Amino acid sequence: MLACSRHEYGFGLSYSTFSFHWGKTTTAANSHAIATGETALTYSVTVKNTGKLAAGVAVLGFVNASRGSVDPSPPLRELFNFTRVWLAAGQSKTLELSMGSDILANTDAKGVQAVRKGTYGVAIGGVGRAGRVEDGAVYAELEVGGEDAALFSMAELRERHERKQV
User: Fold this and answer.
1) Going by DSSP bridges, is the β-strand pair 113-116/106-107 parallel, antiparallel, or unpaired?
2) 105, 154 in Cβ contact below 8 A?
3) Best label site of 40, 57, 156, 164, fewest CB within 10 Å?
4) Residues 6+ apart with CB under 8 A from 113
């Protein structure tokens, strides 16, 4: 019989401990607002090895579903970016993780895939249940505003991107 893991995605153990803090360009109080046409956000986070041994940590960025979403079953958490960093004991490093606005898109009952207005949560962390504040992750709210329920569809996003490439 095969044993099934009881650890959720992003779970990890380490020989050291780490702390996470927003970098200078990102703070929990200074969330970003996506305007129509903006295609990516960059989050800066400082990771510090607070333990006594040099060790590596996978830094994972998650976004959670919008509060007040019109979609009845948006994903609970979705990985938007990750990187791995090795740090000596006491060393810290500032990293940047980018999130494309397409990661916020959900498909409604009519089959329209779009980014919708609402308040999303962005969490960046590492060891433990990555992306959980109780395990040391940093958290910020992301406000997506606009007049319409669907700010822009994925087809519109791709078209804008193609125009910029030409």
Assistant:
1) antiparallel
2) yes
3) 164
4) 105, 106, 107, 153, 154
Q: What single-letter DSSP state applies at residue 156?
A: H
Beta bridge partners, 138, equal 124
> What does the pLDDT look like over 98-149, one tens digit per residue?
888 778 877 777 777 777 777 888 889 886 666 677 678 898 888 777 555 4
Cβ atoms of 25 and 44 closer than 8 Å: yes
In one-letter notation, the amino acid at residue 84 is R
Which are the contacts of 6, defined by CB distance < 8 A and separation ≥ 6? none
Backbone φ, ψ for residue 105 (5° rounding): -75, 140
Type of residue numbered 26:
T
Question: β-pairing, 92-100 with 40-49?
Answer: antiparallel
Q: Kindly report the CA angle at 79 between 121 and 86, in degrees rounded to 5?
A: 105
What domains, with CATH codes, occur in the chain? 11-165 (2.60.40.10)
Q: Which residues pair with 116 in a beta bridge?
A: 150
CA distances from 55 to 14, 61, 90, 136, 164 (A): 7, 19, 11, 17, 41
- The amino acid sitting at 68 is G
